[in-house]
Write a structure and sequence with these properties.
globular, 3-stranded antiparallel β-sheet, alpha+beta, 31% helix
């Protein structure tokens, strides 16, 4: 996770492409991103995939392709779609079946997933109080995600209500400038 968080931090913060939220599952990654159009989204995703693959291959002592296929995306256009996408991405650990424990690993049963951007997320109904050691450790690190700039991600989705950590995940998503879409 340290390698992936660092790749997102260094590759997901450009003026035309920003990773806003993420969740790493056992065999895929969910992202919510902003991009200045389809071309910037494609270039940003390719760059991010390359950065993640190179760093993970180096850390694991392996070579070759890491991602089996291209990303999938879906444009999100309404506050409800964006809220559902955020909920899906940062609470997705509950949706997947293999339980994994804390200490750097994702958890299916924990309210927050250490393999996501949930601890840095500022849209919770009840603000996060970092009670667990892993939460304090993550919050001491630089935030790997960028701050949202589009209305749908800054204000729009909140009109449908802030998120409760007990909610179930909903449909996936990603955001591009002036519109929102989903990348998995």
């Amino acid at each position: 996770m340290r390698v992936l968080r660092r790749a997102i931090l260094t590759g997901g913060h450009r003026a035309d492409f920003r990773v806003i939220e993420f969740s790493v599952q056992s065999n895929h990654i969910h992202l919510i991103v902003e991009a200045d159009g389809a071309d910037r989204l494609a270039r940003g995703m390719i760059g991010l995939e390359v950065r993640m693959a190179r760093r993970l291959n180096r850390a694991l002592g392996r070579r070759g392709r890491l991602f089996a296929e291209r990303y999938h995306s879906r444009a999100l256009r309404t506050p409800t779609e964006v809220r559902n996408a955020i909920r899906y991405v940062i609470l997705n650990h509950r949706h997947h079946s293999s339980p994994r424990g804390a200490s750097g690993r994702c958890s299916q049963t924990a309210a927050l997933d250490p393999c996501s951007s949930a601890v840095w997320f500022d849209g919770w109904k009840v603000p996060l109080q970092a009670r667990e050691a892993w939460q304090r450790e993550l919050l001491a690190l630089p935030r790997p995600t960028a701050t949202a700039t589009v209305w749908l991600l800054t204000v729009g989705w909140k009109r449908r209500g802030l998120l409760d950590r007990g909610e179930s995940p909903g449909p996936a998503g990603r955001v591009s400038r002036g519109r929102v879409s989903g990348a998995t």
